[in-house]
Amino acid sequence: MKLTNVYGFLKKDLQDIEDALTNIIDAEHPVLREASLQLLRAGGKRIRPVFVLLSGQFGNYKEQKEDIKTVAVALELIHMATLVHDDVVDDASLRRGKPTVKKLYGNRVAMYTGDYMLARALEVITTVKDPRIHRLLSRTLVQVVEGEMAQIADKYNLDQTLRDYLRRIKRKTALLIATSCKLGAIASGTTTKQANQLYRYGYNVGMSFQIIDDILDFTASPEELGKPTGSDLIQGNITLPIFYASNDAQFHQDLQQLFENQEEMKDEDVQQILQSLKKTNAIEESYQLSNLYLQKALFEMKQMPNGRTKRTLQMIASYIGKRRF
Fold first, then answer.
1. CATH number for the 3-322 domain, one of 1.10.600.10, 3.30.450.40, 3.40.50.150, 1.20.1280.260?
2. Counting CB atoms within 10 angstroms of each CB, which of 21, 145, 147, 310 has the fewest?
3. 0.90 cut: is pTM over it?
4. CB 196 within 8 A of CB 182
């Protein structure tokens, strides 16, 4: 089953959000407009707007629909901005199988495109008057930027700990998904208890989501990933499978040698490390940790009111946990 089928009843509202995104990034400057549209056309799961809309279903969805959609649009713009900035930092040429904004227009235009999307997100969210939404979004943005800086600082650093990795993916992915859930809840007028439960659900789903993304970077094909297999490794990003595989002394030594000669890194060297990693238990152990986060997410959802929305969020969590493409 496709993930989009799980929340098919949101199709019209998601199309409204897609249309709003297109209108909002229609900049006057032609290069900025084309660069922004390039990223939008590359598509994506739009999973953050989905979490906003679903969380909003627990409150007064019909009465607050416009505010809920506005929050969803703002969060997707923020997510898109982080993607553009990530591609510059990682010197990435492909995203979802298509050329990145950085590849097509260069670093300067890419950075300004990300800044533009972030500015538009902040402009859009001002139409929602609840100060709790602005406070939470501001705190989240600060932590997302801190996470991006930590990722840059930790590149090729084999001395970092598992705790460093978990803190990094919390800021990079989990917080924005958790915030999507909580902002949807706040915008719809749910209880504080429900909003906090949805936040914890989103946080744990987000942690699992990123761990599985990191696993797939080693196990999926370039066609499935839309970028080369092992891209994180090539860029010096130490992800969960690498942490677990590094418990093997020989793997750790080989990886250290590869990183020490990163400027001379060849494709065959990378492939050799990938094969060595797959001979360890790193992939299986990574899936186990992902599943622990999913169980925590499902525990939070178990306490929410029964109905279609609860089942949908449970199904999304289960789907994320079974991703193996």
1. 1.10.600.10
2. 145
3. yes
4. yes
